[in-house]
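dumping this here before i forget
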Amino acid sequence: MIDLLVAGGGPVGLATALYARRAGLSVEVVEPRAGTIDKACGEGLMPGAVAALEDLNVRFEGHPIAGIRYCDSKRSVHVEFRAGPGRGVRRTALHTALADAARAEGVVVHTRPMGPVTQDDRGVYADGLAASYLAAADGLHSPLRRSLELDAPTARRRRYGLRAHYPVAPWTSFVEVHWADDLEAYVTPVAAESVGVAILTQRRAPFSEQLRAFPHLVDRLHGTTGGETRGAGPLQQRSRSRVCGRVLLVGDAAGYVDALTGEGISVGMASARALVDCLAREEPQAYERKWRQASRRYRWLTSSLLWARSHRATASAIVPAAERLPRVFAAAVNQLAK
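structure:
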């Protein structure tokens, strides 16, 4: 019987496996998708995520990110990261780097679907594999979370993410967040001749149609055509608990508020580290509290910004407020950057 079985071989699942190996635990991963895994996301890593990945000996390139810039039709305001640069990295490049690091540590990855999971007071069992514990890192719409009846109701306001890449040189070293009436566009420099554009929206419409809500951004893209569009959502997902017997939820499977603050990988890395620390101490029940601690800042700041975004009286004031209150804006950005 191995110590830990990880369901999901995306970035957080592989990071969980790497933390487990560092803690001296035996670990294997089950991932149904073969090869490099792509996903619709903003592709910007906060400085804290960059530091955590480098600490795990995950080596990747990308484009340095100096900070965050908010833009609307009339103004822009930016803040530099105090903790050093972040990194814009193609999701495929990040996954490849994590897979290489896991392979170097001898992590076995089974390329097959995760079958039905059972557990007793001794372990967790799935498709002939037996482990003391299972980490469910199987994504936003986690089948394991659903099978354990941990799904909790979410708000009616459903938001989705769309992402495409454009073959243009980055015009800034900042991640730009462009605000329109009811949607946002994130522009992340990911390479010397490529930017990623992600749109967060409630609308069901093609990417090119939604992009027209940002005429200044369209001008920046110089009429180029974006690559393949990927989508994800609904974004908000809630779980009644992060611990169900010997199964522990991590990453997006543990619950997700929104991509608005760009902390997904940072929170995923922090919760993966907390999960493994609890198992190494043989205190799995402590993980619920540790997860809440690791994700509190993200949940509070993202929920607060979403609340402001959803009310007409405050939505149009977000960028002007950031301009009028630079210290508050800087403090919020640098809290997220940790």
